[in-house]
Amino acid sequence: MTSIDKARLKAQAIDTIKGNDLGSYTVPTRGLYPFQWNWDSCLTALGFAHFDEGRAWTEIETLFANQWPDGMVPHIVFHVYSDGYFPGPNVWQTGRPTPTSGITQPPVAGFALRRLFERVTDRDAAARRAKALLPKVDAWHSWFHAARDPGDEGLIAILHPWESGRDNSIDWDEPFARVPTEGVTPYVRRDTDHADPAHRPTKEQYDRYLWLVEHFRSLGWDNSKLHDASPFRVVDPGFNAILIRSEQDLAAIARALGETEIAERNERRATEGLAALEGLWSEAHGQYLCRDRVAGKLIDSASIGGLLPAIAAIAPARAAAIARRIEQQGERLDYVVASHDPADPRFEAKRYWRGPAWLITNYLIADGLAAAGETATADRMVAASLELIARSGFAEYYDTRTGEPCGGGSFSWTAAMVLEFLGD
Ligand code: DGY
Prior knowledge:
single chain, binds (2R)-2,3-dihydroxypropanoic acid, 3-stranded antiparallel β-sheet
């Protein structure tokens, strides 16, 4: 057991965030990710709230200043050109005033916004800044339902693995095999200059990531066409649960600010989403699974995407089953939560989202489990997360067996989660 000096960890976490702060937005880490990433920023804002409330609001405001006219909030905003990352703006070619990518990311903004709104000490700023963001986050939620659930199933589909944030999850192996690799413009990866290639997605996966980008680009990034035109359409329970939670949280802020229409719309969608999520439950696995919307079937892959629904108001029995899955992992691993079931032969301890643990998913799941009364598991997750940081620093992610830091270092959202775990 590593001893934990909380004051020191807190100071290090603040320094890590400040080191990645470019004034009105943070980069996830210098080098590997030199721009603003959507869900990184929203979660990093929670870290800022512990030492600079004004800056916390700015982080989210900068992201939403780059929202598309149709409501989508892109997954990357390329504020300042850097050739250290691929694919950059010249590949995406989305035609935005400040260049952005053309896909989105898990919508944690509503969740983060409520946390800021309820917690910050400057109440006037909270009311003013939350009120201005409210319609923008609501428009993003509406965009998801219009563009990604055209059949009105109550759940939305992602069209690119990068949208999930879990880029190379085993969840995508089967549906991704449908995406061709022929004809992709030759390219040079930059991620492997900054991180160990053995910790990163493979060349074949990159070819497919790029094929999808070029395919969507050829359709003019027209979101009324992309869903039906994509060979990759997957309903991810974790992504949907984050949307549902953000809808509930946005509704709570809207009620507090007297915005009844926004509140009712988001409450209704969250209720419908929770009911539809039940269709992704697997008794055999004791957790949720992804659904391949093209093939019309559940994907036999027990990943962290099926544990993340703890963050939404799922039935207590479902939350208890997820807690059990995490306790089972703890019998095999020193550090939970693994991004994929360690009992699955496809598990890879160090490769990005095919096994390693991430502090942000620990945070989201622990938050949900605590709210569902699964406090023993949630407390163990928080303690193990802090021990991991004290031992291995503020890495992007960690080998769950050894605690070895993997991927990039000095990570903003890892630091932000540490500040959240330590509290005030
Ligand atoms: C990357 O480039 O690795 C990102 O995860 C894509 O957003």
